[in-house]
Write a structure and sequence with these properties.
The protein is of the alpha/beta class. The protein folds into two domains: 1-104 and 258-362, Isopropylmalate Dehydrogenase; 119-253, Isopropylmalate Dehydrogenase (3-Layer(aba) Sandwich), CATH 3.40.718.10. It is 43% helix and 19% strand. A ten-stranded mixed beta sheet has the order 2-1-3-12-11-4-5-10-8-9, sandwiched between helices. It starts with a strand and ends with a helix.
Length: 362
């Protein structure tokens, strides 16, 4: 039996609740496909600050480096307001830097049964299936110098050609397996960094003649994302713009709780739901676990090289939604509402049913 090691970092807020359901799905998927997935839990963020006095302790670092892939819940706790280097979020930034994950993939697709919960008209959501590829280790979040002094504060927006070109290749490779379109998002009419970005992306595009490239300013792209989302295939953008646009794209799906992500580099991948730690509902079994479960599906596909298992998990989620399973963020007035655990259980049941049907058919 082939074995894999997955580091599980539940983190803060609702992270432990949604991660619990993703782990249940991972374990069952491994069992159904005949793989042994060994899961080891480690602390990050506020939990790690309490236990170890730092947001990414050395034992977590080692556990992550020893794993084949990393499943993360959420990081963030408003009770910690100290220096940025001692905040829970510093643990997440440090984790990304440790793993060298420079390309964040955030798929957004609209399930037909959920089109009514989006604030956009259903006809605008027809055939929406896009992928945001966000550069993850550069830009304002990492640039130096940065700081605050009295009444002034400063951050540095910096990118190298190498950083832009490597994430651009991820986007073009993905587009080649999808509908063959890349929209590169920048602010080249104002920012020199965006001018470099545009030049580099244009050079990379020459290696992918089968993919159509268009350049868009970020303000226009934000407008088109809600006005004509079906026109997008792959959106390629830098760190800050990608952070904002991917949350905006959650409106299309109807809830942040539905969206997964994969952060990829040259070594282990990091897989986490797009939503934050949501401390206002933490510990109440109200959170939607689907983003975490679909992140586990991406972990199977990209992190462990098990695409069939990832496909099966995604089918199970679609089946559960199609059967009317709803957490609080998805339910319309009068519809039954499932807890986090109940939604996870419905997905597990759907997963088992699909595999049983496939086995019978064989």
């Amino acid at each position: 039996m082939k074995r894999f090691r997955v580091a599980v970092l539940p983190g803060d807020g609702i992270g432990p609740e949604v991660t619990r359901e993703a782990v249940r799905v991972l374990e069952l998927a491994g069992e159904l496909f005949g793989y042994r997935i060994d899961l080891a839990k480690h602390a990050i963020g506020a939990e790690a600050l309490v236990e170890d006095g730092e947001p990414l302790p050395s034992r977590t670092r080692q556990g992550v480096l020893d794993a084949d892939a990393v499943l993360l819940g959420a990081v963030g706790d408003p009770r910690y307001t100290g220096p940025a280097s001692r905040s829970p979020e510093a643990g997440l930034l440090g984790l990304r830097r440790l793993l060298g994950v420079y390309a964040n993939l955030r798929p957004v697709a609209v399930h037909p049964s959920l089109s009514e919960i989006s604030p956009l008209r259903p006809e605008r959501l027809h055939d929406v299936d896009l992928l945001i590829v966000r550069e993850l280790t550069g830009g304002l979040y990492y640039g130096a110098p940065r700081g605050r002094d009295g009444t002034s504060a400063w951050n540095t927006l910096r990118y190298s050609e190498e950083e832009v070109e490597r994430v651009a290749r991820v986007a073009f490779e993905a587009a080649g397996e999808r509908r063959g379109k890349v929209a590169s998002i920048d602010k080249a009419n104002v920012l020199e960094v965006s001018q470099l970005w545009r030049d580099c992306v244009g050079r990379v595009a020459k290696d992918y003649p089968e993919v159509t490239l268009e350049h868009l300013y970020v303000d226009f792209a934000a407008m088109r994302l809600v006005a004509d989302p079906g026109s997008f295939d792959v959106l390629l953008t830098e760190n800050l713009f990608g952070d904002i646009l991917s949350d905006e794209a959650a409106v299309l799906a109807g809830s942040l709780g539905l969206l997964p992500s994969a952060s990829l580099g040259d070594a282990q991948g990091l897989f986490e739901p797009v939503h934050g730690s949501a401390p206002d509902i933490a510990g109440r079994d109200l959170a939607n676990p689907i983003g975490a479960v679909l992140s586990a599906a991406m972990l199977l596909r990209y992190g462990l090289g098990l695409p069939e298992a990832g496909d099966l998990v995604e089918r199970a989620v679609r089946q559960a939604l199609g059967a009317g399973c709803r957490t609080r963020d998805l339910a319309r007035p009068g519809e039954p509402v499932l807890t986090t655990g109940e939604m996870g259980q419905e997905i597990v049941r759907a997963l088992a049913r699909i595999e049983a049907t496939a086995t019978t058919g064989r």
